[in-house]
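Final report, results section. Input specification for complex C-07:
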Amino acid sequence: MKDNTRTTLSKRLTESSPLEGMRLVTVPTNLADAIIIHGSLPGGDIWSPKDNPCISMLTVEMLDEGTATYSKNEIREKLESLGASIEFNSDSHRMGFSIRCLKKDASAVINLLALELREPVFPAKDFSVVKARLESQLDEELEDTKYRAETKFLQKLYPKNHPNYRYDGAALKKFISKATRQHLVAFHKATYGQADAIITAAGDIDLPMLSDTFKKAFAFAKAKKINLEQNPIKAFETKRDTDVISVPDKASADIYIGAPIGITKSHPDYYPLLLGFSILGGTFFARLMNNVREKKGLTYRTRAGLGGTDNNLDGYWYAFAMFAPEQFIKGEEAVMFEIENIVKNGVTVEELHTHKETVDGSFKVALASAQGMASVLLDNAEQGRPHEFIDAYVPMINKITLEEVNAAIQKYIRLDNIVTVAAGSIDKDKNPLGR
Amino acid sequence: MSKKITAPKEFSYVQTSDGIDEFRLDSNGLRVLFFEDHAAPVVNVMVTYHVGSRNEAVGFTGATHLLEHLMFKGSKNFNKKNKKQIWNLLEARGARMNATTWFDRTNYYETIPSEFLEDALAIEADRMREAYIREEDRASEMTVVRNEFEWGENSPFEALDKNIWATAYQAHPYHHSTIGWRSDIENVSIKRLKEFYDTFYWPNNATLTLIGDFDKEATFSLITKYFGKHSRSKHDIPVMYTTEPKQEGERRVTVSRTGQTRIIGIAHKTPEGSHSDIHALQVLSSILGRGRTSRLYKLLIDTGKATNIMPWAMPLHDNGLFMLYLTLTPNTKHEDVEAIVIRQYEDIKKKGVTAAEVAKAQTQVVADMALARDGYYNIASALNESLALGDWTFYTTFKEKILKVTPQDVARVACTYLDQSQSTVGYFIPKKSSTK
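Structure output:
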């Protein structure tokens, strides 16, 4: 067996700056002849106009509908004839892109990416089609009981102007309907054209080529074009509360249980609490899956964890499960029992030891592909951390004590502020709807 | 000069294709596939059993899948009593692991830090012949599987898909989905499940695949140590002999449930996965519905008639389906979209496809194949599907065969298989809710 000592990722990667403000992080892997690139820039939902939070998302949706140089069909034809793809996405803070292509085509694909970011024309006709498509997809989400339970759960935890708030389908449809091409043009002018990108690439790396291509293709971009202001809005002070969304004709119902935690990833309690939630519901052998699924046979899937803590936001804890309507009340009781039990009795030394080992091993597995490597590096850099944090992560987790984990659980899982939202074919009392 | 492949005396070397070596453990017939690579300190271990829902019949549909769940409940040397439970030994050490069941195969896999390879092999070997298949576990796991079934039923797409397969196939067991019918999930006996296990879970009906960071010589020894203790089955593995009678006319099915979603699925019968037309059908599927430059994307998504297009032409062990699913926008009629799709089929049958369209589909496959080698699990997973259709080299020769497809081949397979009399069309139609 070859040497399996811990891989020091920070020593295997190279960071360069093709342009002022741009960070290009590359890691060669064994992926032959192909490359995976991820990147992101400021420009997510928080930059949208106050009266229409969908403008950032709509701008991203329209980036591949044509540029001043090429029509949408020309761009798509160029990409697909290379077997390459460029995908765009956006979240509360950033707009992102990802490229998958053969190494030999990387330069051509990056140039197309730069065109799509620099000079999208947002054709009015295509904008109407995209809006109708998105509205239709939102209609479909009305039937997704998990999505509906989670949306309502987040609405009960955060005020509308908090990045963790999620609008429901009806509200989003209204925003989309009101959006005009001019909104997108204005948003693009104000927000895009930045050089402040974080770009990670893994696979068959040709660093001089990548660096030179990004430098030339993004020569139009300026550093520090927009600045991020810290979000002053905090989560609600919740009280114990339950909501039920009745959705007919659904064989399985979903439940979200949780509350705000009021801390960010940089708080000293964050990682002890994260370990606590890993023990409650982060893995297949965690308490929820072991007791609610394996022992009691009540659910196919149940999980618990922390969410909403990226971008220095005050996050929340949650437990999720799905049950047949006939089993719902029993199922909810079983999940609540595990939550109350972990607060009352804490976790054990054995559980903590095992879950630390899980973190160690799963990190190795996550970094064993170019896709995983590019994602982990980007996520880490987006959170403003040095690359060394990735190598220091497992030792840091290993230093956390039993007392720290149990203190964090006691402090942040308060039984008096838990919010519960259920969605499915159940009535307000959580009994099955008549069929 | 090619390197000579050697194996210990317990194994026979069978063949090599695209860097993947095949061996056989002679004592019991276990097939072993090796692809050694040391770029990352992890290894993927996968055991594929050549049994799936095509080996089930009325009364025990879903048995393969339910059995897959029971395979995690403990075996002679890895169980709760001795505190060596499978998830605790593997996932707890960082493994990405699970099992899946489908029409033609069942697979168990774990991608783990390579220092735990021996544990993974020991566990897989133990549950191959020494799994506990107990009533107490069936009773608690049945409700878990039933909730998995219920979860699937929540999805309009899954509901329509099940109905299209059930309509397209009358005799052949592709008629029922892998999860099975609800009443069979609830009522299949532990005796039937144990019989199923004792019929199909044998080394001579399995393939062990290792991809990644392992030492070949040491691993041969481990395989001999753990899997070599099993004998081959004393019975012949039963052959599923039911063939689907020839379809004599178009079939149609409608699923109507409360909600908003509107979907159409159009399916045509295709030959078995080993047939030489399969590669041309893949190219045809790509030209019709893959990517934003495909014919139907331009006709239906770019025009706002549909929100999503999903072509599906995966080769199976037996005759399969060439399928196309479209999710419609609110004001579009199912009939109109169906007509557009069928017109496009007829257009290809009449006028063929262009050399540029074929070349683009071929380039996409070349890029896909290169990118699909990212991560050991991806390689093992692709091999798993090829094993399911009966020939693991389907994966390693796929690119070469796709590159040989001509526009004439594509037009020919369109004429041969896109025949209305061999089609099944399904509509998912929303109905108004009576509950507020």
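The CA atoms of residues 134 and 391 of chain B lie 34 Å apart. The first helix of chain B runs from residue 63 to 70. This concludes the modelling results for the funded period.
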